[in-house]
């Protein structure tokens, strides 16, 4: 899991090659929806979402993770990683995933 900020200052996280944007903050968790869900531009009405703790350091719940209704956002994510100056991110993401689970 990696965190980014968009050029507009919106927070997003990348998990398993998909982007999630912050939907809302609860008292104990942040709720993220797939960037192709909701009313976002280019939305496919993807139902995938997940919750993290308030510091976004840990995923505390994931729902519908297997039911993205589109292919992973590889191309978009690679572009964002390049823009963020992270070059070894693919390998890093795998390491992160192993640590978290
Ligand atoms: Zn999705």
Describe it.
The structure is a single chain. This protein is an alpha+beta fold. The chain has one domain: N-terminal domain of TfIIb (Single Sheet), CATH 2.20.25.240. Helix content is 22%, strand content 31%. It has a six-stranded antiparallel sheet. A hairpin with a 5-residue loop joins strand 1 and strand 2. The chain is globular and about 35 Å long. The N and C termini lie close together (11 Å). The site of zinc ion has 7 residues, from loops.
Overview features:
single chain, N-terminal domain of TfIIb, 6-stranded antiparallel sheet, 22% helix, binds zinc ion
Structural class estimated from helices and strands: alpha+beta
Q: Mean of residue pLDDT? A: 79
| Cofactors, ions and other ligands in the entry | zinc ion
The tally of structural domains comes to 1
Could you give a short account of the major beta sheet? 6 strands, antiparallel
- Overall geometric form: globular
CATH architectural category:
Single Sheet
Q: What percentage of the residues does DSSP assign to strands (E)?
A: 25-35%
Spatial ordering of strands, largest sheet: 1-2-3-4-5-6
CATH topology annotation = N-terminal domain of TfIIb
Please compute the radius of gyration using only Cα atoms: 13 Å
Distance between the termini: 11 Å
The ordered H/E elements are: EEEEEEHH
- Poorly predicted tracts of residues: none
Question: Would you count the extended β strands for me?
Answer: 6
* Number of contiguous helices: 2
Main CATH class: Mainly Beta
Q: What is the helix content?
A: 10-25%
